[in-house]
What does this fold into?
Amino acid sequence: MSADQTQLAFEWNCRIMADNGCGFPAPGLHSFLFQPLFEAGGFEFNKVMLLALITTFLVIGFFYAAFGKAKVVPGKLQMVGEAGYDFVRRGIVYETLGKREGEKYVPLMVSLFFFIWIMNIWSVIPLAQFPVSSVIAFPMVLAAIVYIVWVSLTFKKHGFVGFFKNVTGYDKSLGPVLPLVMIIEFFSNLVVRPFTHAVRLFANMFAGHLMLVMFTVASWYLLNSWMIPAAGISFVMTIVMILFELFVQAVQAYVFVLLACSYIQGALAEQH
Amino acid sequence: MIANLVQLAAEEEQSPLIPPGPELLIGTIAFAIVFFFFWKKLLPNINKVLEERRAAIEGGIEEADAMKAEAQSVLEQYKAQLAEARHEAARLRQEAQEQGATLIAEMRAEGQRQREEIVAAGHSQLAADRKAAASALRQDVGQLATELAGKLVGESLEDHARQSRTIDRFLDGLDETASKAEATR
It folds into this structure.
């Protein structure tokens, strides 16, 4: 059972100015915790994991339907698939890495983009209504993959010394401030970068989900006595937030992939 | 139940930034499946088709170019043939005109010749007829005159020679008057 559903089911009678005197059931960290759907050998399988797996099947299912039997003259589904594929390939990868260097990373970026996007979209899908990427584990895994790719690429491209020169932004012309810059760059690139990469996606989805839950719960909570107009406003805000979230979901998937590309570009870049 | 959840949250009182292990595992698996499908199957698939499409479009363009060039050459050939044909026609016309002119001249000459022939033949015929008529007349007139003279004189003129000379003189006189009359005519 999702947090939302449990809450709504439980707080059925909890309204503003009701006699039972219960307060506003504000969403919080508990909105992101789920009781396991089932347990198998100590492994607790919950809703978020289920949604993650469904995401996999949806992405593969759609693109298999679109590209599985691809034709030179495309059908409608293939056309849509090609538009999405082209958006990532030309719009993101070729733009940042160029056609020659970037071709190798197209599969990674395409799968990242659609996997993240669908994970985000669950936020507004009825019954699911929970963005998988608002659980830090998922963005973290993806950011870690990107991190491993660009770090190993830097090693491969520049060697051991070259790697450190690359990540510390080694530049003799800086003179006396060079050590300071090197320390800052080292931490910013190797420690902070993967963290912000993951948290940027996570926090956006986390906050978006909180807002959606807040307005949804408030719409019901305020639906009493003379506060009914306020409930209406809250409901309108729910709709507005859903539209806004749809936008944010796509933007965050785009930003995640764009950053991944720019990290790889940095790894491939010649030393200054 | 909410109490239950709050308790759950309290139990696992940890920052939302600390990832739970099972989710990490599921997330890795879920993404790995997507990535491998894209990498090994779907993107090679669509790339092949895109390449084919590009080739088809370029092939079509090439084909169109070839056809255009062919049409151009055919057009030029046609134009050349047309010019040649015009030239030929003009030449034939000229030739025909020339031939016609010579033919007309020839025919005119021939006609002239035939007319002259006919006229000449008529003239000679006329001359011969007149000569024949003249000689016949001379005989008849001689005889008649002789008879007439004999009758008139009542005697036959013995002297043939004289007789003949007289007649000749008479006839010469006749001829002279005849030719004179013809000349005046």
Notes: Chain A has a mean pLDDT of 85. Chain A has one domain: 3-268. Chain A touches chain B through 55 residues (CB under 8 Å).
